[in-house]
Design goal:
single chain, about 90 residues, alpha+beta, four-stranded antiparallel β-sheet, 2 helices, globular
Length: about 90
């Protein structure tokens, strides 16, 4: 399904989506094809977004296009400190 179709079906509200196809250009991901999982109330949008994993996302239909900023995963370094005991 295209985003324009989703915007017509669910005007001015959040929807939870599964990304089916996208492409990356200049550090941005452009979403081309999606599947609607469910509409989401304004009150639950943040909670749903935080619980989303993988290719799921929550987006508002007031946006004309779905364009996401691509960020590099920042790894955590683990340091082992050994204290000598006297």
């Amino acid at each position: 399904m295209k985003w324009s179709e989703v915007r017509e079906l669910y005007p001015n509200q959040f929807v939870k989506l599964k990304v089916l196809s996208s492409y990356i250009e200049n550090g941005q991901e452009f979403i081309e094809d999606i599947a609607v999982i469910k509409p989401v109330s304004d009150d639950l949008a943040t909670k749903e977004l935080l619980q989303s994993k993988g290719d799921d996302l929550v987006y508002h239909t007031a946006n004309k296009n779905i364009v996401l900023e691509v960020r590099q995963d920042v790894g955590l370094r683990r340091f082992d400190y050994h204290e000598s005991q006297a």
